[in-house]
């Protein structure tokens, strides 16, 4: 029962972090130069955290790089990018979703780490916050090397589809600010985004069904 509730919570949190935030930012955005500048600064911080996190091949139980300051730097970076998008769009619904998403991600990450019986990880969980960085870093694991070559391989980054969605919204916000698009343009763009997502999801489902049929036919033969 608990695992099913946790899986449902993960599904809803993933939707809020991806589709929900994108749609709320597209809903009647009113970007101005100040909001765009603040959003750009926060986005740079989020991307820098992603580069720093991805530059290490080893993850917990080895405590390296940003993991010494925060237990889930990837979720923190995505939260920063989403918050920057909401600030740039001056979207009240997007900001509300961000405030809801932060404790939700904390809950999910806390549940996952809580099931690991390792004594050092338990001490690590006690000293290092889940999403709010600490000023007192945890002891670094030995043989932890940072690689710029690994860090800049964007095609290897996780959550690449979510980052692409954020980039698309940023392009739309800049176009809206430059051309002074009306409020209903955001609704049209949101509808197009939903249509594309549905088309891609249906295509993925068809590919999975075809693979299953091919696998069954090959086993029968």
Walk me through what this model shows.
This protein has about 220 residues and is mainly alpha-helical. It has one domain: Four Helix Bundle (Hemerythrin (Met), subunit A). Helices cover about 70% and strands about 0% of the residues. It is built from eight helices and no strands. The protein has helices at about 1-25, 35-55, 75-90, 90-115, 120-125, 150, 160-180, 185-220. Helix 1 runs antiparallel to helix 4. It is elongated, with a radius of gyration of 20 Å. About 30% of the residues are buried. The mean pLDDT is about 75.
SSE string: HHHHHHHH
Beta-strand content = under 5%
Give the fraction of residues assigned to helices: over 70%
Strand count, sense and closure of the main sheet?
Answer: none
> Using only CA atoms, what is the Rg?
20 Å
Number of domains: 1
User: What is the number of strand segments?
Assistant: 0
Distance separating the two termini:
40 Å
Task: Give me a quick take on this structure.
By secondary structure, the chain is mostly helical. The protein is 71% helix and 0% strand. It has helices at residues 2-26, 33-54, 73-89, 92-114, 119-127, 148-151, 160-179, 183-220.
Describe this protein with a few key phrases.
single chain; 221 residues; mainly alpha; Four Helix Bundle (Hemerythrin (Met), subunit A); 8 helices; elongated
